[in-house]
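Example 3.2
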Amino acid sequence: MKHTCQALMISCIDFRLVEVINSFAKTEGLADNYDHLKIAGSALSLARPTGESIRNFLLDQIAVSLNSHQARVVYIINHEDCGAYGGKAAFESDQAEFNQHQIDLKSALEIIKNKFPEVEVKLYWLKLNKSFQKLV
């Protein structure tokens, strides 16, 4: 029996995101039709992992979704006040926090596109007020 999905969603493990990401998936037409990979820091774990084995693990998991479930779109969602980044306290301003996340999201996109050129990658910044900002 084949089981396929439209997309792979990569997001942080933060419990504050569960409901809003599920709602977002529905607005994207992905209700019950996406794989969900959760890892602390989301794009951070691809862009600047604490060890190369973490990046390799993530790339292996992405390959499983693409190869086994035929997902063709990868969503990467980073969020404000992320503990893996040190939270808001790690940044001098909201803009500095956003800028670092944007850099890491774009780096994660390049890493995924280099390994899986056929996949579409969409980047999002999530504010805790539940608003999404599409970056790519």
